[in-house]
Specification:
Layout: E1 3-10, H1 13-26, E2 30-31, E3 36-44, H2 49-56, E4 60-69, E5 72-84, E6 87-96, H3 103-113, E7 124-137, E8 143-153, E9 157-160, E10 163-170, H4 171-175, H5 191-198
Antiparallel strand pairs: 1-10, 2-7, 3-4, 3-7, 4-5, 5-6, 7-8, 8-9, 8-10
């Protein structure tokens, strides 16, 4: 399913919380399911092709990551996030494990798989990210998520004070105008790009 994402960036989780309360009062959002922590491991080529495609805003681009969740530490999800102009989709593959997942075990798995994408280009683990996510949905079945307590991990832990609210509108709903016109300025924002900038792998504002 293709969708477009509108991202609203706040200086801290208190600002994001106040904005969320305003959105819940003004629009028809309800809790979708319980809060959980997300753990993502981003992969890229040796030349960081996916990173720079994102920075320059290439219309057709992708990101590849592994992801696992605090409510199921025995399930690892491989995601290929594909962007085509204003809309994106995900291709997912699920791997169940007999052991409890953490960043170290996922890193070893990536090395053992000798992971290659469809173009036979070798990919490498670049950065790990963890954050708390709250989930909401509107009457049109568009999703709203709130991401806070964001941390980037490379050789050390780097805390990111900002929080992000994302409004995810399905392609059909967008084309039929079935979505709320949220009165906050939206912006481009990628945790992968921001995290790589924080650990001094690229320049990004």
């Amino acid at each position: 399913m293709f969708r477009t994402e509108r991202k609203f960036l706040f200086n801290n989780k208190i600002e994001a919380y106040l904005a969320l309360q305003s959105l819940l009062k003004r629009y028809s959002f309800r809790k979708k399911f319980k809060t959980r922590n997300i753990y993502s491991v981003y992969l890229d080529t040796k030349n960081l092709d996916y990173l720079f495609e994102n920075i320059i805003g290439l219309s057709n681009r992708k990101k590849i990551r592994y992801r696992f969740y605090s409510d199921n530490l025995h399930q690892l999800i491989h995601e290929e996030k594909i962007k085509k102009n204003n809309f994106g989709t995900k291709i997912k593959k699920v791997h169940n494990t007999s052991y409890k997942l953490d960043f170290a075990s996922v890193g070893k798995m990536i090395e053992s798989l000798n992971y290659k994408n469809n173009h036979k280009t070798q990919l490498y683990q670049q950065i790990n990210v963890s954050y708390r996510r709250d989930y909401y949905v509107d009457i049109y079945k568009n999703s709203l998520t709130v991401d806070s307590n964001i941390n980037f991990f490379n050789k050390s832990t780097n805390r990111y004070e900002r929080s992000v609210i994302e409004y995810k509108i399905t392609k059909d709903n967008y084309e039929n105008n079935y979505f709320h016109k949220i009165n906050y300025p939206f912006t481009r924002h990628s945790k992968y790009v921001v995290g790589m900038a924080i650990i001094n792998q690229t320049m990004y504002v």
